[in-house]
Amino acid sequence: MRTRVLVSMVLGVALLCGMVRSAVPGVAQDLQPVTPAAANGRLGTGFGYQGRLVQGGVAVTATCDFEFTLWDAAGGGAQQGAKQTASGVTVSQGIFTIPSIDFGSRQFMGDSRWLEIGVRCPAGSGLFTTLSPRQALAATPYALSLQPGADIAGNVLDGGADTAVLSVANTNDALSPDGAYGVAGTTASPTGAGVKGASTAGAGGAFSSVAGFALIAPGPSLIGARTPQQIGMLRWYDANRLAPSVAVGSYPDHFAFDGLHMWVTNYGTHELYKIRAADMAVVATYSTVNNPNPIAFDGQNVWVASETAGHVAKVRASDGVEVLRVTTLPAGHWGMAFDGQFIWVSNTNSGSVSKIAASDGSVIGAYPVGTQPNGIIFDGTALWVANGGDDTVKKLNRTTGAVMGTYAVGDSPMGLAFDGANLWVANSAGGTVTKLRAYDGALLATCPAGTSPMFIAFDGFHIWVTNYTDPGTVTRMQANNCGMTTAIATERYPFGVAFDGANIWVADSQTNKVSKH
Q1: Which helix (DSSP H) or strand (DSSP E) does residue 45 occupy?
Q2: Rounded to 5 degrees, what are φ and ψ at 231?
Q3: In this predicted model, what pLDDT tens digit does every residue of 108-120 receive, in sequence order?
Q4: Would residue 206 count as lying in a domain?
Q5: Chain segment 393-408, per-residue pLDDT in tens
Q6: Are strands 422-427 and 413-418 parallel, antiparallel or unpaired?
Q7: Tens-digit pLDDT profile for residues 422-449
Q8: What is the number of structural domains in the chain?
Q9: How far apart are CA 320 and CA 394, in angstroms?
Q10: What is the DSSP letter of 31?
Q11: What is residue 92's DSSP assignment?
């Protein structure tokens, strides 16, 4: 058995957004959707924003003014559309909510966009402080503005027989009032699946398919609302067969995603596998530390630690060259996280975590946390560590390593995930996951999972938990309320789990495969 990873971001006068890369920018999972003006009204172009405001390490409680501007570059560049403001916003213990920011649909035409935020507290007093850096807007807003004439070509399900590739040819401008069709085209799905839509001027979607059907009637998994994120990623339904998989080395454990490739540690063969996320092709295999377990990505390099020795290696992601190796740590590592500047490693056998400078591998210090520290994660402000031996999670100051809070969870906590606002803990001996509010550690829920839940990931909408059994399963549940729980079949003893922005990856540790869901 072995373990996990996860990464987040820090901002200077920090605004910690409730998001993952593929979620709507700034929207936390617990944010309630904006109510449409009419039950059957057209979907607007505004998006809600929820965040946490921290100044000098202290959560703000005040009434503040906010201003939002849209840009075409991460720095400099040209402003897009008009400035949006929100005055007299209540900020309580750092948490604030902006119901709607609306730059209009014409600002999201497929080009990259960044959101710049200014804030002043108290409201109406003094100048605005601009928060840095600007935040890159993710894919969801573009789901509101599919361009006429666009070609959508992709692997909608997986590499199996039902792969659907859509080639679109518009007969009219879907964005103009006289357009008769929202989208028109042909689907190449062997099953006949098309696309169903709605248009204020006529047919929403006119399709034929090679199987002779315009569309397939929705099955049970299509009942209920789908999120904009799922629509934007063409993840509208569930595959009802085993996920595609690829063979790797002996006892695959954990994942790190570098933006293009998924990296996998292989405990039994002392290797790293580099797998192209798009098609699961194995790009390269590299020798590394003995019995590699936790792994993390720092933007340029992959860091990997040994479960059995006090070794941590820094590997250049571009070519797999080991840049340096730290050999002075206590033996036994089960968790690793990157905080934007430092690598943090849990020393499971010695009850501590070590802080390593990502720049040169120097060990900054070791900090006691509890009995048998396992998973470790960064939430943008603080580090969290799961202590499997005393059934607690501890919150650490990222600068000093001091314990900021200790919170009771379930039996033998192992893996951790952060959803932008809340911490999720897999309790390996209790068959549950625990949901804690990140800013104060308040217990929000204890949710049932499968047998021996080990590691955990967030996909922007669901929580995924590996259940270390034979045959194994992965439990998927809604992050807002632990609802719609589904057990998805995997192979033997699923262990690590990770999200790549579109798919969930699972390490089936005793069949020597990783699968993509």
Answers
A1: none
A2: -65, -45
A3: 777 788 999 999 9
A4: yes
A5: 999 999 999 999 999 9
A6: antiparallel
A7: 999 999 998 999 999 999 999 999 999 9
A8: 2
A9: 34
A10: P
A11: B
Specify whether 131 is located in the same domain as 29. yes
| Angle at CA of residue 175, ends 169 and 177, nearest 5° | 115
70 part of a folded domain: yes
Residues 6 or more apart from 25 whose CB is under 8 A from it?
A: 17, 19, 47, 49, 115, 135, 136, 137, 138, 140, 141
Q: What's the whole-number mean pLDDT along residues 488-495?
A: 92
Contacts for 123 with CB less than 8 Å, ≥ 6 apart? 62, 63, 64, 65, 87, 88, 89
What pairs with residue 347 in β-bridges?
A: 333, 352
Q: Is the residue at 134 inside a domain? A: yes
d(CA 367, CA 253): 25
Looking at the structure, do residues 128 and 194 belong to the same domain, yes or no? no
Q: Which residues, 6 or more positions from 499, have their beta carbon under 8 angstroms from its beta carbon?
A: 20, 22, 257, 457, 458, 459, 460, 464, 505
Neighbours of 163 (CB within 10 A): 15
| pLDDT single digits (tens) 302-333 | 999 999 999 999 999 999 999 999 999 999 99
Q: Quick: pLDDT tens for 345-393.
A: 999 999 999 999 999 999 999 999 999 999 999 999 999 999 999 999 9
Last residue of a domain, one of 213, 232, 251: 232
Helix (H, G, I), strand (E, B) or coil at 297: strand
Question: How far apart are the C-alpha atoms of 442 and 81, rounded to whole Å?
Answer: 40
User: Which residues are bridge partners to 504 per DSSP?
Assistant: 499
User: How is residue 32 annotated by DSSP?
Assistant: P
Cβ atoms of 123 and 64 closer than 8 Å: yes
Q: What beta strand segments (E) does 92-225 contain? A: 95-101, 114-120, 129-130, 135-136, 166-168, 181-187, 198-199, 202-209
The backbone torsions φ and ψ at residue 352, rounded to the nearest 5 degrees and listed phi first, read -140, 170
Q: What element of type H or E holds 228?
A: helix 228-232
Q: Which of 1-10, 130-139, 199-208, 491-500 has the highest mean pLDDT?
A: 491-500
CATH number where 26 lies: 2.60.40
Domain end point (choices 204, 232, 260): 232
Specify the long-range contacts of residues 81-89, CB closer than 8 Å, at least 24 apart.
81/106, 81/107, 87/123, 87/124, 88/63, 88/123, 88/124, 89/63, 89/64, 89/65, 89/123
CA proximity to 1, closest of 349, 496, 365, 331: 496
DSSP 2-15: -----B----TT-E
Q: How far is CA 315 from CA 2, 8, 9, 361, 499, in A?
A: 21, 20, 21, 12, 21
